[in-house]
Amino acid sequence: PDRYAVIGNPIAHSQSPRIHTAFARATDQDLLYERMLGNLDDFAGDVARFFASGGCGLNVTLPFKTAAWALADERTARAEIAGAVNTLIRLGGNRLRGDNTDGIGLVRDLADRYGFQFQGARVLLVGAGGAARGVLVPLLETGLDRLVIANRTPEKAAELALLGAEHGSVRACDFNRLASERFDLIINATPAGLNQQVPPIPSTCLAPDGWTYDMLYADEPTSFCRWGQQQGAARSLDGLGMLVEQAAESFWLWRGIRPDTAGVYAVLRGARA
Ligand code: ATR
């Protein structure tokens, strides 16, 4: 079988092998997908050895996405701006193409699975680190009305807004100046939920019928999901669907087949219930 893997550190809890194995079964593809614990001081060596031994493609997760961006021989436009690569594709002549499927994964989860109407929507993106940067351009390409970025360190939000400016309507705004604004969708791209925190978003920000989305996911509802529920969000979603959709996009890049994601999503969701 053709060999694929996900490389990260830590990696033990990655769901990617399960997701890709299910995709392969459903689409009748003969492939093997494994977990790889990457060496923190020899990521390039790990990647080189994997492909030299016949590997066909790699997913890259924390903390190696920037390193993967740097070592790719060529990059897609969306990976270029993301500054991060989560999918490596083997080309001829030992060359590697780097792509980033996180942003399109987020958009597909919201728009295709849940029917969120991006057209004309006012969207707040909270956070300005790697996770936010990774989804910036795909969000701006949805036809939304405006994207506002808020971050604990305002300078980083301003930098990100500048980076996105040629792709759509985007600006930065401090948390304490958000109170007069209304959003149809608030996306959390900070890891604040990991320590039971929620970024300081004024509770007036969510429009009636607005949605909230946490790019994190966990067995229990995340603290940001609970915040969304408390605000009366029409939907308060976590990032499990994004995980499945970014995997489907990688699968398509490697195999040329777009797997149906509903079954895998239901299984993962059920396993966590
Ligand atoms: P990632 O790659 O996951 O995005 P990162 O690059 O460290 O991680 O960025 C984390 C983002 O979450 C940053 O925007 C960070 O704010 P700062 O730029 O001010 O550091 C934000 N963040 C982290 N913990 C937070 C918290 N408890 N409250 C609000 N924002 C937080």
Structure description:
With 273 residues, the chain is an alpha/beta fold. The chain has 2 domains: 131 residues, Leucine Dehydrogenase, chain A, domain 1 (Rossmann fold, 3-Layer(aba) Sandwich); 136 residues, 3-Layer(aba) Sandwich (Rossmann fold). Helices cover 38% and strands 22% of the residues. Strands 2-1-3-5-6-4 form a 6-stranded mixed β-sheet, with helices on both faces.
Task: Write a concise keyword list for the protein shown above.
12 strands; 10 helices; alpha/beta; six-stranded mixed sheet; 38% helix; globular; 273 residues; binds 2'-monophosphoadenosine-5'-diphosphate; Rossmann fold; six-stranded parallel sheet; single chain; 2 domains
Write the layout of secondary structure elements.
Elements lengths: L1 E7 L7 H12 L3 E7 L5 H10 L4 E4 L4 H7 L2 E2 L1 H6 L4 E4 L5 E4 L2 H12 L8 E5 L3 H11 L5 E5 L3 H11 L5 E3 L10 E6 L17 E9 L8 H8 L4 E3 L2 H16 L6 H11 L1
Parallel strand pairs: 1-2, 1-3, 4-6, 7-8, 7-10, 8-9, 10-11, 11-12
Antiparallel strand pairs: 3-5, 5-6
Helix pairs in contact: 1-9, 5-6, 5-9
This protein binds 2'-monophosphoadenosine-5'-diphosphate.
